[in-house]
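Lab manual, section 2.4: Encoding a predicted structure.

Procedure: take the sequence of the chain (233 residues), apply the prediction step described in section 2.3, and record the output as structure tokens. A sample record is shown.
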Amino acid sequence: MADGLVAIVTGAGSGVGEQVVIRLSELGYRCVLVGRGVEKLERVGAGLSSEWIAVAGDVGVDGDRARIVEVAMDRFGRVDALVNNAGAAVFCKMGEMSSEEMEGMFAVNAVGPVDLARRVIGQMSERGSGVIVNVSSMAQVDPFDGLGVYGCTKGAVGVLAKAVANEYGEMGVRGYSVCPGAIETGMLRSFVSEEMLPREATLSATEVAGRIVGLVTGEFDAENGVVLEMPSG
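Recorded output:
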């Protein structure tokens, strides 16, 4: 059990993030649930078996990121795990995408995770332990038509995993990036119909969450800094 350890999970109100929080709570982690809507976070938190706190915020906004970490440290005094799960996707060819759409995706998918890692990694390294798991996408490996810019934004967290390992691995901090294929979530179905991609060709949120939690706990043995692909279909 991990009684007393603290995990920040972004995008915790549904899908993969919700399943990660549930599993970590069962293992004894005190959880900081982060998302844009506090109602969803409180619904998830109400079913947890360990101590938790909900922090409504947008990881694409600098002030919100600062507040997320400040609230976690004020409440629990430490952060042992950061799961960068929150994401934004615009299904659009790059030449047809607006500057606002492009910059919005980079803010949430790239700047947000790197900045949250920057804000928590100091106290992890001082303590000699900690883990940062980033949820990327197979789109960073081979983006299909319409997800080119999205794949670019997700590539940043693949590099982040290696940067954590290279700069802080000797101080006990681990970094990973998980690259799932299509996950059966509301975000996926907002731009891909079941006719285009049947449910049986997708990953479940539970499958992906299991891999993430295994990396957090060390149950899934992987080289520090590795990018793990999880193709669907």
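Check your result against the sample. DSSP finds seven helices and seven strands in the chain.
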